[in-house]
Amino acid sequence: MSTGNVERILNKYAEKIRPEHPGLPQKLYPHMLRRTRACGLYQNGVELELVSRILGHTSTQTTRIYASLSIEMLKEAMENNSVDVSETAEWLDDEEALARIFGIR
């Protein structure tokens, strides 16, 4: 089946469901499905290298265009790497420890 036929079928069915889904783009094309799936895989935690292999890319550089970060991914990264402010640094009042940490002594 040609790309043109797939595009016609996509747009035919898109017209039928557009009343319930007004945000659907006016013109759909097959590559949108591939791109959407690739972005979804990456945003759901599949490593970029694996997404690249699934897509048949010879280089992960080609796949990087699909590696858009979702707000959820950014939020999760911040939550997983936040500093616990309830902990008190042991060296705060110890000038000797501070000097050693910064290589002064």
TrEMBL record:
Q: Where is the Tyr recombinase domain?
A: 1-79
Entry keyword set:
DNA integration, DNA recombination
Cited SUPFAM superfamilies: DNA breaking-rejoining enzymes (SSF56349)
Q: Which Pfam families match?
A: Phage_integrase (PF00589)
One term under GO cellular component: cytoplasm
One GO term (biological process): DNA recombination
> In terms of one coarse class, where is the protein primarily found?
cytoplasm
Q: What is this protein called?
A: Tyr recombinase domain-containing protein
Q: Give the classification, highest ranks.
A: Bacteria, Bacillati, Bacillota, Clostridia, Eubacteriales
